[in-house]
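Hi support team,

I submitted a single chain yesterday and got back a structure, but I'm not sure I'm reading the token output correctly. Could someone confirm the output below corresponds to the sequence I sent? I've pasted both exactly as they appear in my results page.

Thanks,
R.
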Amino acid sequence: MAKLRIMVSRHSAFYSPVLAAISAGFLKDEGFEPSYAVVPAGRNVAQLLAAGEIDVAQSAVSASWVVLEQGRPSPMVHFAQINQRDGFVIAGRRAEPDFQWSELIAGGFMFVHGGQPQAMLAYAMHRRGVNLADAQGVNRSGTEAMLSAFRGGEAAWFHEQGPYPQQLEHEGVAHIVASVGEVIGPVAFSSVAASSEWLARPEAKRFMRAYRKARAWVASAPPAEVAASEQSMFPGIHRDALTRTIAYYQNLGNWGGSATIAPEPYETALDVFSHSKLITRRHPYSAVVVAPPDA
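Hi R., thanks for writing in. Yes, this is the structure output for that exact sequence:
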């Protein structure tokens, strides 16, 4: 079996195509023995790919823009789409069947600060006529700290990827009221990345075969089956919350269609980052994205 070192920027059921490639055995079927880790504090997956410390990473096209903004070429290329929607949802203290985005301004809004999550949230709120800067932002670094603070009564609103808001809902301390992904629509949110050198190796084609199968499976399999496959990776999450998360992402259209990163959602991601002034120019698609290795 060939070793395959996979690292993710965030641990979430949102990245189920990558998780299921490991947990449901798709990579094993292609002769891989995969390892899985979350990027350590103070480092990023681009650095680790460039150093040869990992083989494949969950990243985002926007991560390469950070390097391009500095006038340097990106050390990684993005060759497959994981999610074609934003996967963050917003939960409140009570059910809000008539929720209005303007309600987020009052009561304390605990959201994931910085980078792409905040940029996407700000763009979605802008589309709903609300300015994120007007909200009473609550910053608690890290998902576990956010969960603990919200359970303790801090803030009226909670913004995270699944399955964490769904777990709070399962516990009866929150109700999901809105979806960032529904507001923005198709966007190049997260992707599979590697070095150009690794993509030229035979292992890359084998990885892509396994990944395509995993992505198609999580998009169409019964949510309970996907949740059962991934449960060991979420020890603090109830099976019902994980199952509802998978169903939500399937219904959102998160994992459907081609695994190729298309130009149109890439341009939408540029719109998002331009809105928050996180980029100074529209970085060309060809500088960031390549075709999957078996295309």
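A quick pointer for reading it: DSSP finds 13 helices and ten strands in the chain. Let us know if anything else looks off.

Best,
Support desk
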